[in-house]
Amino acid sequence: xxxxxxxxxxxxxxxxxxxxxxxxxxxxxxxxxxxxxxxxxxxxxxxxxxxxxxxxxxxxxxxxxxxxxxxxxxxxxxxxxxxxxxxxxxxxxxxxxxxxxxxxxxxxxxxxxxxxxxxxxxxxxxxxxxxxxxxxxxxxxxxxxxxxxxxxxxxxxxxxxxxxxxxxxxxxxxxxxxxxxxxxxxxxxxxxxxxxxxxxxxxxxxxxxxxxxxxxxxxxxxxxxxxxxxxxxxxxxxxxxxxxxxxx
Length: 248
Known about the structure:
Strand order of the largest sheet: 3-2-1-4-5
Radius of gyration: 21 Å
Strand content: 5-15%
Order of helices and strands: HHHHHHHEHEEHEHE
């Protein structure tokens, strides 16, 4: 953000305003604009011309996630109103077709576009937003509860501390974020238990996101010799807080 506090507050207000007025048409125009169209078309799955083709479904999904009312009914109602305003035929406002269309969206399409737009935002940040001319990247992890389905339980089993059938599947996330723009550059996800499920392992799978000259900033969990060596080989510096020593 802008180093001036007044300008920073103004930027934050602009971001909030854009978030409030963004609808599925705004996202559709972005996805089909010159900066994203080639990437979107390369990721489109084979599909029939339905009421909710992939690009329109993804646009509605993005608007739904940004809306204060995140219900499927709100997303479908808004799309139906836009169709009427555009002179298109009246469509049903039942949510079943949209829900099925959302489930057909390939995960690779969503994740690749997220990385593409994040990289695009990071590349366009003004030099004054960087630290001493260097790009600062944040790394952190989190866990999220998933819907309790058999498929999710198979891939993301619930913790052993929960009795079987009484807990939700848990997914661990590790993300790399551009400090200057706040854009998500990459993320890795995995189960919360088992080999390779720790944050260090997930981070190693996305270290290729970092470029020579970057500065990686994280908490004490990431301050390991092996990570610092890997960063040094890539020309990346790491700054991590130290673990407190209760006996020191």
